[in-house]
Structure of Stage V sporulation protein AE:
Amino acid sequence: MIFFWAFVVGGLICVIGQIMFDVFKLTPAHTLSTLVVSGAILDGVGLYEPLIDFAGAGATVPITSFGNSLVHGAMAEAEKHGLVGVLTGMFEVTSSGISSAIVFGMIGALIFKPKG
């Protein structure tokens, strides 16, 4: 059943994003920002972790999880280091994903010929 719920929850997050594109005519930047902020707010009020426990990868793979990671890291480090921890916590938790995107993007740019 975990695969089913991961599919349903991840699909619903994607459907929300698609509705934002098609119905509300939002740009990709607005849609991306809205979904990241939504994940951050859900984590701030304590609702995203139960969603992860329920849906697994259905909640950790979509972009809303990035907002969750930012807030989660900031709150965890704030407990240890105070106000400075808020800033360092966001970077500490998300640095591996961002670094991977940069490295793999560079490798892809070197291997494949861009269209243009």
About this structure: The chain has one domain: 2-111. The chain has a mean pLDDT of 89. Residues 75 and 86 are 6 Å apart (CA to CA).
